[in-house]
Amino acid sequence: MKTEKQNYAVPIFMMILLFGMIAFVTNLAAPMGVVLKSQFGASNFQGMMGNAMNFIAYAVMGIPGGILLQRIGYKKTALIAIAVGFIGVGIQYLSGYVGQGSAFSVYLTGAFIAGFSMTLLNTVVNPMLNTLGGGGNKGNQLIQVGGSFNSVMATFTPAFVGILIGEATKAQISDIFPVMYIAMGIFAIVFFVLLAVRIPEPNVEAAKEPMKNLMSGALKFRHFVLGAIAIFVYVGVEVGVPGTMFFWLSETLPDGATTAGTVAGTYWLLMLVGRLLGASIGGKVSSKIMLTVASAVGLLLVLGGILLSPSIMVNMPVFKASGSSLAFGFAKVPISAMLFVLVGLCTSIMWGGIFNLAVEGLGKYLAAAAGIFMTMVVGGGLLPLVQNYVADVAGFIPSYWVMFAALAYLLFYALVGSKVHKRADGK
Q1: Radius of gyration of the chain, Cα coordinates, nearest whole angstrom
Q2: Which residues make beta-bridge pairs with 332?
Q3: Does the structure show a pLDDT above 80 at 255?
Q4: For position 26, what pLDDT does the model report?
Q5: Which of 156, 350, 151 has its CA nearest to residue 234?
Q6: CA-CA distances (angstroms) from residue 205 to 80, 209, 364, 366, 381?
Q7: What whole-number distance in Å separates Cα of residue 109 and Cα of residue 96?
Q8: DSSP-assigned beta bridge partners for residue 325
Q9: What is the pLDDT of residues 355-399, one digit of tens each?
Q10: Is the distance from CB of 294 to CB of 343 less than 8 angstroms?
Q11: For 97, which of 44, 108, 134, 226 is 20 to 30 Å away at the CA?
Q12: Please, which pLDDT band fits residue 4 given cuts at 50, 70 and 90?
């Protein structure tokens, strides 16, 4: 048995790398908006379009991705996802070489294609790590390791991009080439390694009923429908709070994107901290209580960030740039930014809480519900677009009323909307 586990060490490492790549590529989109605003004179709404294209892919591929798994298996799906990811990042890279008139469109195309890859990888990596670990506690442990590395890469990406951009008003797509080299290199290595090694396939149970019937059945449960909306809203908050803050701080701080990137990176670092804390108390505290507290605290933090004057500056501990490296230190930022960063502690535990509440009592409709959830991740692209449209019209700080309203809905769902009125087993 030990030999078998040792044989899986390489694919386990590759899957953990892919877990990180999901965050690496996804979190590249929002900071790239600063480049789009500089190079093409894009509005805040247009600057967030790359992020939107990345997430719109979830709406397109969420359910087909699950069908693909059943037809060709996990390894082949993973290989397709990696190849598509390489192509998507490659097209974004090419946008730095084409003419100014078409570069914006080429970049958005690359972001959309990369989003297909992220959708498939999100579908593959969790069950693959669980299977490679032999299931049970070991499998869950590997998933937690992968999730932690995902958070580390989410922290690293905006900070690294901020260093590369430097002065936001002079940013060009070519400034981000080192990030794209890293992404394409990792995709290429993982592709050929996975192609060469033998890995077990997670068991995929064929649905006894057509997926269409299962999906329509899941949508008859009120608490699930409201939960699916909550996932849409939650992902929008998770992405919109730091993404819009990156835009705002890039325009207002003396060193522009460099500090903006490290502040946004600290938001994702706090998400890692929050997930670790959530895992430690998850067995003792109900999902309803965790979601209620997280939503209420997030609501107060955003409200404070809106109402307090951004002219009030504070020294905030951040994961920051020190020369050409990254280290802990302090950055002088508006107090509003510090409060927005703290929202990361709240959003960190929301996915699991919403999922657990929404699928309660769904029985045979659980798999279809998971597919619908993956589709609703599109909120991470659409809600930040709405926020940045408001930012164009009314300013960055007023745009956070969109996030306030979203958190208010999550609090409503935790307190009222999650109540189970019926179960699949009729009990």
Answers
A1: 21
A2: 315
A3: no
A4: 85
A5: 350
A6: 21, 12, 12, 13, 31
A7: 13
A8: 322
A9: 888 888 877 777 677 778 888 989 999 999 999 999 999 999 999
A10: no
A11: 44
A12: very low
The residue behind tokens 């991705």 is 65
The whole-model pTM stands at: 0.83
CATH 1.20.1250.20 fits 1-206, yes or no: yes
Domain with CATH 1.20.1250.20 in the chain: 1-206, 212-420
d(CA 40, CA 92): 15
Q: Letter for the amino acid at 411?
A: L
Residue type, 72: I
Query: In angstroms, rounded to a whole number, what is the distance separating the alpha carbons of residues 237 and 241?
Result: 6
Beta bridge partners of 313: 334
Cα separation, 32 vs 173, in Å, equals 8
What are the DSSP calls for 354-398, one per residue? HHHHHTTT-GGGHHHHHHHHHHHTTHHHHHHHHHHHHHHHH-HHH
**C-alpha atoms less than 13 angstroms from C-alpha of 341 in its C-beta half-sphere:** 26
Task: Give the pLDDT confidence of 186-234 residue by residue, as tens digits.
Answer: 899 989 988 888 877 766 555 566 667 777 777 888 998 999 999 999 9
Percent of all residues in the chain with a pLDDT value above 70, rounded to a whole number: 89
C-alpha to C-alpha distances, 154 to 108, 366, 387, nearest whole angstrom: 21, 29, 21
